[in-house]
Design a protein that fits this description.
Blueprint: H1 6-20, H2 29-36, H3 40-52, E1 56-59, E2 65-68, H4 77-85, H5 109-124, H6 128-132, H7 151-154
Antiparallel strand pairs: 1-2
Helix pairs in contact: 1-2, 1-3, 1-4, 2-3
């Protein structure tokens, strides 16, 4: 089964919380933990990762807290997932720098690469702003490539 880790699920939840109710003000880790019911230590860990990836900024002090580093429409699901999961790949042969011992014999490798690319594009086309919109309905278009016939075959 393909699935995101709980940390990534929580990370997306925290990021949408920053958009949904408080885009104009900063929220503390405790504010986010209370609003989302995610344990405070987990919230802090996730926020640190999001800070390192420059998806969030933090401000210290009495009116400090966390806020998005850029507009929610400029942050994609792919950005968040990559931050919290690392490289995104459906199969190991899609990981950068991975040398598969079956590559010389594998008839599906190129197909998996195209499928993986489609998934990355789909995740890249869904913004955090859309995820925070309760009326958002994701629409994915998957196009089946039609091979171009050789001119001599068509005749």
């Amino acid at each position: 089964m393909l699935r995101l880790t709980r940390v990534t699920d929580y990370g997306i939840l925290l990021m949408t919380q920053l958009v949904s109710e408080h885009e104009s003000r900063r929220l503390t880790a405790n504010d986010l933990a209370l609003a989302t019911r995610v344990p405070a230590p987990t919230v802090s860990k996730i926020l640190q990762s999001l800070l390192r990836s420059e998806l969030l900024v933090s401000v210290r002090g009495a009116h400090g807290g966390y806020q998005l580093a850029r507009a929610a429409s400029d942050i994609s699901l792919r950005d968040i997932i990559h931050c919290l999961e690392g490289s995104i790949a459906l199969t190991e042969c899609n990981l950068e720098g991975h040398d598969c011992e079956q590559s010389a014999f594998c008839s599906t490798s190129s197909h998996w690469k195209r499928i993986n690319q489609s998934m990355l594009e789909a995740l890249g086309n869904i913004s955090l702003a859309e995820m925070a919109d309760e009326h958002f309905i994701p629409v994915f278009m998957v196009q089946r490539a039609i091979p171009i016939q050789n001119i001599s075959e068509a005749a």
